[in-house]
Amino acid sequence: MEHFDVAIIGLGPAGSALARKLAGKMQVIALDKKHQHGTEGFSKPCGGLLAPDAQRSFIRDGLTLPVDVIANPQIFSVKTVDVAASLTRNYQRSYININRHAFDLWMKSLIPASVEVYHDSLCRKIWREDDKWHVIFRADGWEQHITARYLVGADGANSMVRRHLYPDHQIRKYVAIQQWFAEKHPVPFYSCIFDNAITDCYSWSISKDGYFIFGGAYPMKDGQTRFTALKEKMSAFQFQFGKAVKAKNARCCFPHAGRILSAARTTPF
After folding, report:
1. pTM to 2 decimals?
2. How many domains does the chain have?
């Protein structure tokens, strides 16, 4: 049974960045559901905007984005819609429009070879015994068992690591729903939509590579119904939809105020 200093579960941007930083300093193993290349297999449902804080982290690390992760167009404001008040305002924002899946794979490609990375893998069981973390995972067609001194959970909103560490800690959960439509708007835009009658979270839209992406976070019980109702309301704000060409759902968490530690945007506890 092989032993590591650190086992990282999940290689989204947070997990990949940590693996890159620890390379050469500790013996690291990293497990990820995504394939190493291509569009097959798991991909993260995400609008794909790189915020200024993330951009600054790349500046600190001396990294530049390759052109194949950047989407078209680049937009420098967000249309903010208050549905109940029928108000719309535009606010300047410096987001970079990216292809999220291509971005994730690029981040993984930056991990040095000294890190043992398993792509297209599935973590099946974790437990602590004899002052070590034990991890059973499936990769390359067979199950493997390793141990580690430290275990890092960067495995998303439905984190196995968090559920193991805090089995009784409940976090408010929402379903994030996104649909892709052929872009019909004469001027592409980003938007952020607030409508408390639909959700106490928010909804959004993003123009990207010829598509209009519309999504939001809604209560788990009737999320699809609320999503459809909001789409109908948005015609009053000149949103154009048509027939959806793709749709994805994902679980997201809405933590309460208090002491919160997060390894990634969707993994607070």
Report:
1. 0.88
2. 2
